[in-house]
Each structure stands twice: as C-alpha cells, then as structure tokens.
Design goal:
Elements: H1 11-22, H2 30-43, E1 47-51, H3 54-64, E2 71-76, H4 85-89, E3 93-97, H5 111-120, E4 124-128, H6 140-149, E5 155-157, E6 165-166, E7 169-170, E8 177-181, E9 194-198, H7 201-211, H8 234-244, H9 247-265, E10 271-273, E11 280-281, E12 287-291, H10 299-308, E13 314-315, E14 331-332, H11 335-343, E15 344-347, H12 355-369
Helix pairs in contact: 1-8, 2-8, 9-12, 10-12
C-alpha cells in the first residue's frame, strides 16, 4: 500500500526518544519547554504552548474568549471537523462561510454577510476562525480588517500549515492566537499533539493553567474551576524537536512531489491542481488534483482505481454545511466549497514517497483519466 501521508521518522527522532527515556523524561521533562521555544521562534510569536492536539489548542483559545451559548464563531465551511468541534464544545454556534477559489481559505467577501446572518439569528459573533487549508495561508489581511472593524478577534486554525508562509511570515501571523497540529499524517508529527501560539502573555499563561487541569499551586490538588488534561508529553516533544530540524527539507520535498504530479498530468483534459496564491509558500502538505467535467473519470472513480492498485487517496474535505450534524447551521454561500469537494482528490504526498512509487501513481492516474 502506498499511503496518503505517512510519518517520516528516522535516526534523529529515535535518538531523541532514547535520550528522553534514559533520563526518565516520559511525561514531563525539559523537551517540552525546548519544543515550545523552538516553535515560537519558527512562527515568530512570543509564546507557544504544546498540547495534545490541534483541536485541543483551538479549544483552549475559544475557552480563553469565554465563548458560550448564544454566541457564534464564523468558520470556513471547507475545513476539517477538528477546526469546528471546539465551537460546539463551548456550547456556541458555528456560522459557516464559503471559501476563496485561490487560497481555499475563508472568503473575506463572505465575512460581512456572515456577521449579518448571525445577528439575524440573535447570535453575537465572538470570533472569526479561518483555516489555512492543505498547507496554504488564507487571505488573513482583509479578514483581520473586517473583524477588527467589528471588535471581534481572529483565531487562526493553522493545523495543516506548519512551514507555510505569506509574504515571508509564518502561517498564523497576525491572529490573536493560532493553533497547529502534529497529527501522524502532518509534515511535522509527534504522533499526535498540537501547539497554541500568541504574543499575549496573559492569555498564554491562562492557557497553560487550563491545559494542566486548572490546578492551583499547592501540595494537594486544588481546583477552583474545571480545566483539561491537554498537556503534551516529553517523549512526544522530543520527537517534535527532532522533526523541526528538518522542516525546510520536508516542505521542499512535498513541493517537489506536487510539481512532479503537475508536470506529469496537467496535459490531461479536465485536470488541474490546487493553486498557490500570491506571496505564499504552499507546503503542499497534500497534493490536491481537481477533475473537471471533461476529465475521463470522476474523483471517486479515480480513487477506486488507485485503491485497486494499493494506492491511498482521499476526497477534499466535505464542506461542513453538507455534514448531517450541521444541516441546520447558519451559513453564507458554499458553492465554491461544494465544487472543490466534488472535483478534488488528495494524492499520496509523503516525504518518503519514492520516485518509482510516484511514477506508479502517475501511471494509474493517466490510465484511469484518459
């Protein structure tokens, strides 16, 4: 089987884990603080907090805003469930908005109407949470401007975009807080895990407190509010530190894989690839191909053809407004997201993908689409 996006773990990571275990640093150890410092430096932020997942990071961010029932968060409809579920955890309501056809991130043009839709339903918008999808930064500038005009903070879901940049700044820049994921299929992985970053020291201090079960400093366990067990362990942080050392090479490799797909397949009728917006470095976490109506196969037919040859592929995220759980959620637009879902297929993109295996994938695609 050729996987969609397999983790790359080698001698560097093994040595880091062995060192942590030898020192007895399993759950707690200096690796966590070192990982946080390295990630803060990467993203250009003053503070970073290592947690158990990207979803946990975003949940903490929304808890810090004291989000509650009767309030709303504007989210892109084209995203992963983990970027929306924390809104529900807080008892609030997501308002979904369509995405931009170039960046695939929240369309700033839909944002004013999303505020109007929320107000019409008696909801107070407390945050805007755009997503940096598949390794590309959204159009954060105008989103920040529109939200600031309404006195609403922006939290960035950059779970899929570690290593991506916009005008030289790392994904997540500009937002009050940003969340990242180190899930096993990401470019950088800790086997799970996530990170929350911000320049606000007070917010991050409270986030750290909440992430450690809201335990007050005392010999006994003292709590005056409910927190979460969201800490990242030392062994996972040791892996993350080792992986960060090779981030640039990993991004370069994923971009090269994408370019080979594009060069080998763009001549096919009805075939296109995810665009790269101006001023952006798209990490190509996943190489996404788009099949138009004049292509020789649908994305699902191609997925099945690849599967028959032991090759994993996956549709583009199903829009949130099409998910049964959100069928009654307020939304603005959705046609762009629906089109991307209908036409898109994510191709194997592992940094460990060999040229021979990629050639095999390309051959199957050409045979199925022609």
């Amino acid at each position: 089987m050729i996987p969609l996006s397999a983790p790359e773990v080698g001698a560097r990571e093994q040595a880091a884990v062995a060192e942590a275990l030898a020192a007895g640093d399993v759950a707690m150890g200096p690796q966590v603080a070192a990982f946080e410092a390295a990630f803060a430096d990467l993203t250009g932020r003053a503070h970073a907090l290592a947690v158990s997942s990207g979803t946990a990071a975003l949940h903490l961010a929304l808890r810090l805003l004291d989000l509650k029932p009767g309030e709303a968060v504007i989210c892109p409809t084209l995203t992963f469930m983990g970027g929306v579920a924390p809104v529900i955890y807080q008892g609030a309501t997501p308002v979904f908005a369509d995405v931009d056809p170039v960046t695939w991130g929240l369309d700033p043009g839909c944002l004013p109407q999303a505020f109007d839709v929320a107000r019409a339903q008696g909801l107070t918008v407390r945050a805007v949470v755009p997503a940096d999808l598949y390794g590309q930064c959204c159009d954060i500038g105008p989103i920040l401007d529109i939200a600031a005009d309404r006195g609403v903070p922006v939290l960035l879901d950059s779970a899929e975009a570690v290593g991506a940049t916009l005008n030289g700044r790392h994904a997540g820049a500009g937002a009050l807080m940003a969340a990242y994921s180190f899930n096993g299929n990401k470019i950088i992985t800790t086997g799970g895990g996530g990170m929350l970053v911000s320049d606000d020291a007070a917010l991050m201090e409270r986030a750290r407190y909440l992430s450690t079960a809201a335990r007050r400093p005392a010999v006994h366990y003292e709590h005056d509010e409910v927190g979460y067990n969201y800490r990242l362990g030392a062994v996972a942080a040791a892996i993350g530190l080792a992986q960060l050392e090779t981030l640039e090479a990993r991004v370069a490799r994923r971009r090269a894989i994408f370019e080979r797909y594009r060069a080998a397949l763009s001549d096919l009728s009805g075939v296109a690839f995810a665009p790269e917006g101006p001023g952006r470095r798209h990490t190509r976490w996943l190489s996404v191909m788009l099949l138009g109506p004049d292509a020789g196969a649908t994305p699902e037919a191609l997925r099945l053809a690849l599967q028959a040859e032991g090759i994993e592929s996956r549709p583009v995220w199903k829009p949130m407004h099409l998910q049964p759980v959100f069928r009654d959620a307020p939304r603005v637009g959705g046609a762009v997201a629906e089109s991307l879902f209908a036409r898109g297929l994510c191709l194997p993109s592992s940094t460990t993908l060999t040229e021979a295996d990629q050639g095999r994938i390309i051959s199957v695609i050409r045979g199925a689409v022609n």
